[in-house]
Amino acid sequence: MSDDESAVQDAGFDEWLDAAESGEAYALECPNGHGSLPPRRVCPDCGATDLEEVPLPDTGEIETFTVTHVPTPAFEEDAPYATAIARFGPVRLTGQVVGTDLETVENGLEVEIEITVSETTGERVLGFSPA
Amino acid sequence: MHDVRVAGAGLTAFGHTPERTSRDLFAEASITAFEDSGVSREDVEALLYGNFMGELSEHQGHHGPLMAEAAGVQAPATRYESACASSGTAVRDAVMRIRNGEDDVVLVGGAERMTNLGTAGATEALAIAADDLWEVRAGMTFPGAYALMAQAYFDEYGGEHEDLAHVAVKNHENALSNEKAQYQSAIEIDDVLEAPPVSEPLGLYDSCPISDGAAAVLLVSDDYASQNDLDAPVRISGTGQGGDRMALHDREYLARSPAARDAGEEAYADAGIDASDVDVAEVHDCFTIAEVLAIEALDLESVGEGISAARDGRTTADGDTPVNLSGGLKAKGHPVGATGVSQIAELADLLSGEHPNSEFVADATTGVAHNAGGTVASATVHVLEVVA
User: Fold this and answer.
1) Helix axis angle, B336-352 relative to B22-37, nearest 10°?
2) Average pLDDT over all residues of chain B
């Protein structure tokens, strides 16, 4: 990783974070209704190439979670922190649970997307906060 | 189709040797494999070599020719990288080369140097087996990914951390007699439950260690074995590989591993066996929950039942189907690129009566090896059988 990393965008992914920050997170959907995440040209389920952006529901539901105590260096100052997988309509997302005590995170918890930052690196992080 | 035999194997000790280069580790394993097999170096037609994080830990790419040189073989060499299933995929391609007559003698191996990175550095390096944009940047680590699967499993099928602790206790017990193992130490259930958390519910003793080590096997055609009067009583009779979506959140199931199920079904069909024929298994227990998911994917246990297998003694050394008699990744260690080949080496020794734990499977004829990459986005399964 070079020092310039933050200056170079990951096309598709960074636009998605921008949209999510504006409350306009989306999934890609093919004509057969398969959801996926960008950057993507081909539906991974069926190979369709005409993917369209569809808005995600405002809230999702946590399906599983963990509290991580031993992080990678990029999250050294963040630990311990909760990571969860949550369902938002046609896709699931992995994110860091913020805005609540770690003890209150549980399966079934209703959350909304909140783009946060790593306390360690200042980089943007996909997060969830209780709805 | 030519039959594939395991002519010989070599393992380094797995453990903490941060100063040793992977080329030195692999050289040692290869020397043992040549001595064990009686195969001469000039007969080797290809080296297939597994390695995952060499760019990060040794600033080294292009491992193939480097490792052929280290092993003293004049043969074309190719590196295989499929995360923790790297050398499992190398074994599979070697089997197919020998079966179709392309080669008679293939050196298959793998090595990983990890401990020089330290815990944080190795955690970061292992994480590149996940989706960088959508998983790693959200803070998911590898223990974290398996913790997400464990939590999903508990939610869907029941079970608790203590059930997982029995997997760790069993595999440490199995490693006591394995002189190559990183941990030759018995642990108790309370040691697991009271260990520092890594990613809840998984703690330090639910996790395999960070390891340095290498493995090598010499695979040969049955014709070559008989022409050279080799002692090669174990054949690889089945091979299978499965794949899945890269990110855990994109899978249909969060608490199952369909890639391993597909690999197992393919390998069983290839060998003409079914799960009930399996006498002994070496599975990819990078975390305790991973062994549970593996034995369910291999149909050794029904879905939702694998959680109790170690606790109830079905997979212990004296159980119906012992799992990870080597100690598994958990206690033997997990030098990532070496693991798939080391499973073949351990299983061949178990079946041929040459393993310290062979006494537990004295009548065994059929074994299965399961190697998984990432959160099982890649999986290989091999069936080994004693030649009648």
Assistant:
1) 20
2) 97
- Mind spelling out the 3-state secondary structure of chain B? CCCEEEEEEEECCCECCCCCCHHHHHHHHHHHHHHHHCCCHHHCCEEEEECCCHHHHHCCCCHHHHHHHHHCCCCCEEEECECECHHHHHHHHHHHHHHCCCCCEEEEEEEECCHHHHHHHHHHHHHCCCCCCCCHHHCCCHHHHHHHHHHHHHHHHCCCHHHHHHHHHHHHHHHCCCCCCCCCCCCCHHHHHHCCEEECCEEHHHECCCCEEEEEEEEEEHHHHHHCCCCCCEEEEEEEEEECCCCHHHCCCCCCCHHHHHHHHHHHHHHCCCHHHCCEEECCCCEHHHHHHHHHHCCCCCCCCHHHCCCCCCCCCCCCCCECCCCHHHHHCCCHHHHHHHHHHHHHHHHHCCCCCHHHHCCCCEEEEEEEECCCCEEEEEEEEECC
Angle between helix axes B22-37 and B63-71 (nearest 10 degrees) is 50
Residues in chain A whose Cβ is within 8 Å of chain B: 10, 13, 36-37, 44, 63-76, 78, 81, 83-85, 91-96, 107, 118, 123, 125-127
Q: What is the pTM of this model?
A: 0.97
A3: closest CA of chain B, how far (Å): 17
User: B306-335, pLDDT tens digit by residue?
Assistant: 999 999 999 999 999 999 999 999 999 999
Burial of B240 (0-12, 13-18, 19+ CB in 10 A): buried
- Is residue A3's pLDDT more than 80? no
Say if the Cβ atoms of B151 and A70 lie within 8 Å.
no
Using CB atoms, which residue from B124, B134, B201 is nearest to A72?
A: B124
The mean predicted confidence, pLDDT, of chain A is 94
ipTM more than 0.85?
yes
Would you give the DSSP letter of residue A60?
A: E
Token digits of residue B266 = 């393919």
- Supply angle C-alpha B26, B32, B36, rounded to 5: 145
Local structure of A75: helix, strand or coil: helix
Contact B139 A65 (CB under 8 A): no
- Kindly state the average pLDDT of the residues B276-281: 98
Determine, for residues A65 and B137 on separate chains, whether the beta-carbon distance falls below 8 Å.
no
Closest by CA to B257, choosing from B108, B152, B126, is B152
Long-range contact list for A15-21, CB < 8 A, 24+ apart?
A17/A115, A17/A124, A17/A126, A20/A113, A20/A115, A20/A126, A21/A115
With contacts defined as CB-CB under 8 Å, which chain A residues touch B135?
A: 94
Q: How far apart are CA B318 and CA B312, in angstroms?
A: 11
d(CA B379, CA B368): 13
> With an 8 Å Cβ cutoff, are B199 and A70 in contact?
yes
